[in-house]
Protein 1
Amino acid sequence: MSKADPGTKSLSIKALLFPWCGGTVGAICTCPLEVIKTRLQSSKLAFRAVYYPQVQLGTISGAGVVRPTSVSPGLVQVLKSILEKEGPRSLFRGLGPNLVGVAPSRAVYFACYSKAKELLNNVFVPNSNVVHVCAAGSAAFVTNSLMNPIWMVKTRMQLERRVRGSKQRNTLQCVRYIYRTEGVRGFYRGLSASYAGISETIICFAIYEHLKKHMNNIRLSPSAAGGREQNTTNFFGLMAAAAISKGCASCIAYPHEVIRTRLREEGTKYKTFVQTARLVAREEGYLAFYRGLFAQLMRQIPNTAIVLSTYELIVYLLEDRLK
């Protein structure tokens, strides 16, 4: 019986450690943006009144009248509000559940994606768009189903507003509260919107794989003369492909994020996916479906670029080592 190659073991450990470390650092650095994004998506966002002067025509004096309108605060306004009213610590609400979920969610996703891709290559044309779309969709379905309770707790903590000097519920207390008030079903609120969000994953991977095919020498080449420079070029090319694909997918499928946040709010009028979509459109207009998009793009594009390119690098190293 042959002994396992120590080098292969080392690469396997790195394959688990690198995504976890990258995901952890990314979650910590981008947590404030995620909190702001969630607050912007919430129905409890405090709109500010803006008064525009308007000339009243047909009057002798030509006196102006004031026309009030409601304006949604932007990213900077929400950031200032959190810092002034709740303190800097509130920018890291929900970080605990995020750190707990980041490693298993990515491990489950990439494991399912690789396995589905392997199986589907035997059914359809290998590495075709159909294979990529189906593999990404099935991996997202499994991951969302398993991880929804963790993301539900994270969202609920991010929506909780803190008064300076007061204590907020920690992760365990939030879990107990949800279970006590809503039962086990409470942990699966917003799951229908997460399933709708599978379209974002499918779009992202379809564009990403398409860009990979059309990039010259995109696959990391074995070390040779000038190999290091070529590898560096390839790595940054993968990052660019991932960033473009995630940016396009986020812009197209973003409304499901707003609907999911509304469904996860505590004690609200939002009950189902379709009912929430209709209610938001009727009461706030279609632009409400894109509240927080800028914060989402700032948070997700760098994260996705790093994660996907690192994943490709690890796959290449493992394959090259096992040859």
Protein 2
Amino acid sequence: MVKSLNSFSKFVIFILTMADALISNDTRFLGVLALVALACFVRAKLKFTKWLGILIVLHLVILFCLNPDYGVTLYHYNISWIADFTLQEALYLLTIFLKDVIILTFLQIFLLTSQPAEISASLNTIGLPYRLSYKIGRLFGLRKQFKINYTKLHVAAAAQNQKFSKFAAVRFLLKAKHEETLASRHFGKKQKRTWYQMRPFSERDKRAMLLAVFSVIISIILIVVNGGRLWNPFR
């Protein structure tokens, strides 16, 4: 289901859900949104990158070390939980954790289920200049290209009984001139182009984007209901 969505709709969903995570500090709403994000991630049969998990943990550790009492200041209560670690600080860190999970999960869904040319098309569709969009899209295809070219170079070196390291492969590939794959049509007006790999919008795309818009509306309604961005269960 997720992989069949148009690349532009996945990009829009990522932007809107990121807006949800940045706007709302309601832990309940963020928890539901994080579960939806993880469900979509599992449905797409993707694997969460380990370094992103390390990045999230590092982010939480840095926030706690910089100001261990920020949760108390934020919620205006001080309920000790474990030693000097307060329940308010735990809730604050949980909120930040959910924000990170939402943003990084939807970002991975967009990047890992879209072809480089589709990413370029999505960025160009929202107004990013064609040349910049094309270069950004190509960046996400470099890893795959490197693996293919490294395999070819490694086989060629083995056939000649020569040692060949990854460092040598990187040096060679950076110096070599590669032909660019025709991933788009080079005609159009000003910064706009038509794209070969831009999938047409389906009813599923429209429903998915409407749900993302609806989530933004809910986050705004919660701000009104809570009297601010923060949900404070300690009142």
Protein 3
Amino acid sequence: MLAASLKPPPPSPPSLSASSPSTRAPSQTTVTCLPRRRRRHRRLHLSAAATAESAGAGAAVSPEEASTSTAFDEARLAQFAVDWEAVRADKDRGRVLRLPVVRANTGGLILRYNSLQGFVPNPLLSPAHWCKDPKRPIQDITKDLVGSSISVKVSEVNEEEKKLVFSEKDASWSAYSSQVKIGDTYDGIVGSVFHYGAFVHLRFPDGNYHLTGLVHISEVSWDLVQDVQDFLNEGDTVKVVVVKIDAEKSRIALSIRQLEEDPLLETLDKIIPLEPDLSPDAQITSSPAEVELLPGLEGICNELLQEDGITDVRFGRQALEKRVVSQDLELWLSSVPAKDNQFKLLARAGRQVQEVYLTTSLDQEGVKKAVQRVLGRVP
């Protein structure tokens, strides 16, 4: 046992090198470690060399290839120029275009116009899309339009800034505005609500909502409206009447309150009813001194007498309304037809109401303009 332990160790294995790959060491661990490292470095080296060679080959472009690429770029630029010129002409002519929707983003739709792409912001889309499901987010609705085509008009062209904007609302106005007349009533859906009023989308006989009008704060209710959102909210269904159309600005003015009976007339008749055998003249006093006038009303009446065609101003009944229509003094021309050249005005402030009778040779429109002139002069 002792002799065996003093036996010299076996000779060391010969060194391994890349030049003698056939040499193998007794130890498997030694054999599989070093050569793998060297092969990895060689691979990395060859890979870098191949990349450099490939890059060098890519940088070398034949004259024929360079000429083809230049010609292609020039053709594209020429096509862009032609299309910018064409889209400017379409805007000037007010043409309605049918363009494909290529994609949607959070702000609107991207449309293709030949070699160009343009944008339709969400506010310039037709209300027909949103009104199908007012509770659905507009971003989900626009995604469904990708792959379809919509009718639009060119809204803005700026070649220098590469800006091209389309409007579906303008195209809808061209198609449907001729069907709208003053006095027409529509069912509508309330869209955006602001401090000055609410936009209402109008439902047409085909069941779609093609146009949008504004209900001004003064036309929301007979009550005093200080915050439109106290009366209207997005998605509400309402009935409106068309009171004004501005074709030049593509605007429609709507009213909700004019479809309701004026509570003022009802209040006056209930508080100060006219006897069957009593004419309106019997209720009119002959002198402003006999009536406690609304502040500022006497000055307005004196100015009315200075208007051509107005020969007399007298005061009639007073009453208190059930609700406040305006805190400031307002003059309203009654819808009651004139009798014996006499028109009736209604002066209102707070809940107080005062009848004012004008004797005049003017027609209803003339009286209206005279009152407007006076109100413009009197602070």
Protein 4
Amino acid sequence: MLTILSGLGIGLAMGFVMQRGRFCMAGGIRDTYLQRDFTMVIAILIAISIQSLGLFLFYEWGWVKLPEGHFPWLATLVGGVLFGVGMAAAGSCSTGAYYRAAEGLAASVMAVLGFIAASKLVRLDEVKGLLKPFKQHQLEDQTLYQTLGVSPWVIVLVLVLLTLWLALGYLKRRKRPVALMAPRKTGLAHWLFEARWHPFVSALLIGLLALLAWPASLESGRVGSVGISGPSAQLWDLVTTGNTKFFSWPGYFLLGLFVGAFIAARGSAEQRWRYPGHKVVLFGFIGGLLMGVGSGLAGGCMLGNALVGTAYLSWQGWLFIPAILFGSWCFNYFALLRPMRLAQI
């Protein structure tokens, strides 16, 4: 029962914060090369730094265990590129698709369905055999500090100081005022459902929740934090066969994530059915499929790799980010940038 409650509770809070904070890692990565806006990149670093700092403290105190294994560099690289292409096609990462589906966006609903189906597909024995050649290429060192031969605290300190420097520099720069509508709610309701959430505040909360997930999920015998790739495959089994054998902490987290985002969307009057057209919906489904295959190959999605893997300083997490950046850029170059440039000629 404790496993169910902690998984649901952290998932509810994560879904609520992501929806209200509009915390979309896909959009943040896209903004870096389309608008030269690094706001969300800094926010992601804040979430990683908070989690990493707390995680190694928890490890010193014996509250958590760290993942062990080798670094499947080729699978991470290829999977990350596929995930990035799918993320750009769908207009959001897998986690963003879940909370936008809770808002009623048809394209995101299809992205979630595609992601769930592909997450299950890549875990079938026949498909695992096809992907095995990618996963056989491994390096012995799993983490940055193993390769560099230093204490993890050295890298954590550098990461935290870099994040502080970037965040403080960003906050010091003058920003143009944003026009806001007169509030219709007061007190706690206003702050929860109406006020504009700063990305850095959302990142701080997400980092803390991801940190709490480490000891919470360990209670169920799982070493790790949040993620939705594996749980999405578990959800397929639960819905199609009623099989609850492998449905554990991550699965309850995933359910909580969706419900939390739905509550936030309803409370902020952002929950309504929206159909953006056949083409956008089709791209959402295809993007979800690619993200599911990519995350299965790379061993994690945006949460599992880009947020959690980076926090325990794994090569897998830190290689995944540039890989999805490249995949996202490739799709957007041919879908957006190149047509815009040709139109200007």
